[in-house]
């Protein structure tokens, strides 16, 4: 997973392929893991290096905020993870635009950046927005200037691999434009849609409880691949892609951001934990809410279920963790201080099976 490519990752997160069908009322497995009172970290399926790095820091006495940011920085810096930071898949113009948010439980402060270009660690800039401004969210050019003001260096975030995927997407979106993919003189219908590169989601979220029992979280992403320039997803929106309440718990998300933006999912999960639900139950509740409120037929499968996936991750004040997705096949990672981090299957509302 540490070296996961975006296209592999999106196999569970993109719009569902035609070869899959839903099983109504599939049993939901319980996947909670308790920490036994010590520090604990939970992250998305691509977060094994993040939970291990974060746990190293927590064990050395770092705060939950320092730990989760150090954790996701490893993945932001990794060109092989094409969902986050350096090497993230670009927007429709071939430019990498990053979104990130952080939230610090003990002070209930948050910071975020959206559509930030040329800075590979948006999570660090989000932290500075929280600590060195009176605001919560900076976007685009303003966010870039703010990052440079604090000494961040601009760099090209597009790698050859992510550029080549963008070119492939561009050459295959339509048969009605002038871009052509490689082809032979015999080929017809050049440039028809390639479903595997059309809808690509991916993100890392990381939540931790530290030795003092304090909670923090971070969500960082290059967002939806090939997005309309300027599109902002749920990741930098406090309450949608990330929320932390130091009394109760923390929640983060990956998957179709638009569904979280219209359902305020992260804050709902934390509130549900506050009413006594386990992290996993609370995550499943957010999945159900999205499923019940996905009204547009274009977003539904043949049975009226969401034709996309969203995965939630949560930790409560006791250090119990849980994760759930709308569709089976999603993963989360945990490190509870007992050896290396583990990758576990998320609970789910609907099970995907091959027809
Ligand atoms: N939630 C992110 C967004 O919508 C993408 C993802 O997690 O896959 O930008």
How are the SSEs placed, and which strands pair?
Elements: H1 6-9, E1 20-23, E2 40-44, H2 48-59, H3 64-76, E3 97-104, E4 109-117, H4 122-132, E5 137-139, H5 140-149, H6 160-172, E6 204-209, E7 215-221, E8 242-245, E9 249-255, H7 257-261, H8 265-274, H9 279-293, E10 310-316, E11 321-327, E12 331-335, E13 342-345, E14 347-354
Helix pairs in contact: 2-3, 8-9
This protein binds aspartic acid (ASP).
What is the gist of this entry?
The chain is built from nine helices and 14 strands. With 355 residues, it is of the alpha+beta class.
Detailed description of the structure:
The chain has 355 residues and is an alpha+beta fold. The protein has one domain: 4-Layer Sandwich (Glutamine Phosphoribosylpyrophosphate, subunit 1, domain 1). 26% of the residues lie in helices and 24% in strands. It is built from 9 helices and 14 strands. It has helices at residues 6-9, 48-59, 64-76, 122-132, 140-149, 160-172, 257-261, 265-274, 279-293; strands at 20-23, 40-44, 97-104, 109-117, 137-139, 204-209, 215-221, 242-245, 249-255, 310-316, 321-327, 331-335, 342-345, 347-354. The protein has an 8-stranded mixed β-sheet. Strand 10 (310-316) and strand 11 (321-327) form a beta hairpin. Helix 8 (265-274) crosses helix 9. Residues 1-32 have low confidence and may be disordered. Bound molecules: aspartic acid. Residues 13, 201-203, 221, 223-224, 233-235, 241, 254-257 line the site of aspartic acid (ASP).
């Amino acid at each position: 997973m540490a070296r996961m490519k975006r296209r592999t990752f999106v196999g569970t997160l993109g719009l569902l392929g035609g070869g899959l069908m839903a099983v109504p009322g599939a049993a939901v497995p319980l996947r909670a893991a308790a920490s036994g009172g010590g520090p604990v970290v939970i992250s998305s399926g691509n977060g094994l290096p993040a939970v291990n790095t974060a746990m190293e820091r927590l064990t050395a006495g770092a705060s939950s905020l320092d730990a989760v940011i150090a954790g996701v920085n490893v993945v932001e810096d990794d060109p092989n993870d094409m969902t986050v930071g350096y090497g993230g898949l670009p927007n429709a113009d071939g430019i990498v635009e990053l979104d990130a948010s952080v939230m610090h439980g003990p002070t209930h402060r948050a910071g975020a950046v959206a559509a930030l270009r040329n800075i590979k660690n948006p999570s660090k800039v989000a932290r500075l927005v929280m600590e060195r401004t009176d605001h919560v969210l900076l976007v685009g050019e303003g966010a870039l200037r703010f990052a440079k003001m604090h000494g961040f260096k601009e760099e090209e975030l597009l790698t050859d691999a992510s550029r080549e995927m963008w070119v492939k997407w561009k050459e295959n979106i339509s048969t009605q434009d002038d871009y052509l993919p490689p082809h032979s003189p015999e080929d017809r219908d050049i440039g028809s849609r390639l479903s595997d590169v059309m809808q690509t989601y991916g993100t890392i979220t990381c939540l931790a409880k530290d030795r003092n029992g304090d909670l923090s979280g971070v969500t960082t992403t290059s967002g939806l691949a090939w997005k309309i320039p300027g599109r902002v997803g749920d990741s930098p929106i406090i309450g949608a892609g990330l929320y932390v309440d130091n009394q109760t718990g923390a929640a983060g998300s990956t998957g179709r951001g638009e569904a979280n933006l219209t359902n305020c999912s992260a804050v709902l999960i934390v509130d549900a934990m506050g009413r006594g639900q386990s992290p996993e139950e609370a995550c499943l509740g957010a999945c159900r809410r999205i499923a019940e409120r996905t009204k547009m037929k274009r977003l539904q499968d043949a049975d009226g279920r969401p034709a996309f996936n969203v995965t939630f991750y949560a930790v409560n004040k006791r250090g119990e963790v849980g994760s759930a997705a709308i569709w089976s096949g999603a993963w989360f990672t945990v490190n509870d201080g007992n050896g290396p981090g583990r990758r576990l299957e998320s609970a789910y509302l609907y099970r995907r099976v091959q027809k």
